[in-house]
Amino acid sequence: MTGALWELFFEGLWITVQLMVYSAALAAAVAFGIGLARTSRFRTVRFLSGVYVEFFRGTSALVLMFWLFFALPLLGWQLVGIWAGTLALGLSYGAYGSEVVRGALQAVAPAQREAAIALSFTPGQRLRKVILPQAVPEMMPPFNNLLIELLKGTALASLLSIGELTFQAKLARLSTGQSAEIYGIILVLYFAVAFVMTRIMRVLERRAKASVGRAVPKGEGWFSRKLPVEKQGPEALATGGKP
Amino acid sequence: MPEILKGLWITIQATFYGSLVSFALGLVWAMALRSRSRWVTWPVSIFVEFIRNTPLLVQLFFLFFVLPGWGLTFAPLTTGVIGLGLHYSTYTSEVYRAGIDGVPPGQWEAATALNLPRRRTWTAVILPQAFRRVVPALGNYVIAMFKDTPLLAGITVADMLFQANSISATTFDYLEPITVVGILFVVISYPTSLLLRALERRLVR
User: Fold this and answer.
1) How distant is the Cα of B37 from the closest Cα of chain A, in angstroms?
2) pLDDT greater than 60 at residue A160
3) Which H, E and C letters describe A10-47, residue by residue?
4) Nearest Cα residue to A206 out of A228, A224, A182
5) Where does it localize (chain A) (predicted)?
6) Number of helices (H) and strands (E), helices first, in chain B?
């Protein structure tokens, strides 16, 4: 392994991280938008957002990416590779995230909502001051999982010839032919990024829990991705952590 | 269209065999992680976390380019099935874990009281109770795997996306084939997930 090869990898790693950050931002926006829409009072809004979720969860992220990159230009829009990747990842992981948001919003005790109404808060105040602060800590562990899924999803962008980590590995392999070393190294690089992200998310989870005065459980292992939960409900069993 | 349907058949085969591999391996990981020896639980948990936290696509490339170098030459589809099965086994192991944890501790104690050997405890007491709770969740991963099969196009498996790409390459029509493939995915995975939800209501109360 030469220095130039490492440079190639770190260039790719940087694009991978950018891709992850952009699409995570888009996914978060979509998740909150659609998640809130799914708890709306209006039937039409609920229905339309439901259609969005089922559609984007139903189809494959890679096919969506290909569609945005290869098919959309025929309808008159040509996207730069990295934006096609960001859009595809953001829209599909946003759909998964919206289910997390919806679940967390619905898990807030109904009495809290009633109390806010009794205090004659406007719907906006109710959401901002009462519902969200309690729902957000609930969302953190599943968001952590989703973020890792998203990171892994960025590898798909290599098939659109975006110069991220996986694509650079492909180039490196073509020039040196050392498949095992090269793919081994980038697997470790992906793992390292995932590991750092889980740590950061865990800190955020602790902060969010502490901010609403909830006890933070101790004694998690280095290799577990979530803070330990007291009890796993049937929902956790049903999804098993992955969307 | 006939080419895409041919691709669909490959996609379904990959999903089916990949599921079988992941169901079997997942159970192996889940049981190994409950072992009393650290020499078993440590390597397995590191392996499982590593596979879970790295992209399936890169794992597929790894297998596709490296296995022949080790003297193991498989058809692309076989390599794909190994990759999918291995990747998803790390998810199904979590499902089994939750299912096994859901078996009341009294059942373990009862098996000990009856002096059942460890193997009989697993096969006759714990697993039959765990499986019922686990079926719908495993089904969810089958759908997830189905949606990940287009990655196999990256290692030259002639799945739906591969077929769509080769049609596009000859006709220069990208819009139609890829749209058809995308819609086929929704058309198959949505009813399946509805079915699973119904099954879940029955099995897990």
Assistant:
1) 17
2) yes
3) HHHHHHHHHHHHHHHHHHHHHHHHHHHHHCCCCHHHHH
4) A228
5) Cell membrane
6) 9, 0
Element (H, E) at A5: helix A3-38
Per-residue pLDDT tens over the stretch A182-223: 999 999 999 999 999 999 998 888 888 888 877 666 555 555
Using DSSP's 3-state secondary structure scheme, residue B148 falls into: helix
Burial class (CB in 10 A: 0-12, 13-18, 19+), B121: middle
List CB contacts of A84: < 8 A, sequence separation 6 or more: A65, A68, A69, A72, A160
CA angle A197, A202, A208 (to 5 degrees): 125
User: Residue B188 is encoded by which pair of tokens?
Assistant: 């198959």
Which residues in chain A have Cβ-Cβ distances shorter than 8 Å to B41? Answer: none
Q: If you search the block for the tokens 């009633």, which residue do you land on? A: A114
Put simply, whether the predicted model's pTM sits higher than 0.90 gets the answer: no
Residue B204 pLDDT class (50, 70, 90 cuts): low
To the question of domain A1-209 being in CATH 3.30.450.190, the answer is no
Instruction: Report yes or no: A74 at the B interface, CB cutoff 8 Å.
Output: yes
Contacts of A71 (CB under 8 A, 6+ apart): B174, B175, B178, B179
How many A-B residue pairs are in contact by the CB < 8 A criterion? 152
**Chain A residues within an 8 Å CB radius of B94:** 240-241
- At residue B38, what are phi and psi to the nearest 5 degrees? -65, -30
Q: Rounded to the nearest 5°, which phi and psi values hold at B48?
A: -65, -45
Q: How far is CA B198 from CA A83, A99, B27, B135, B187, in A?
A: 38, 18, 24, 12, 18
Q: Do A63 and B91 touch (CB under 8 A)?
A: no
Domain ranges of chain A: 1-209
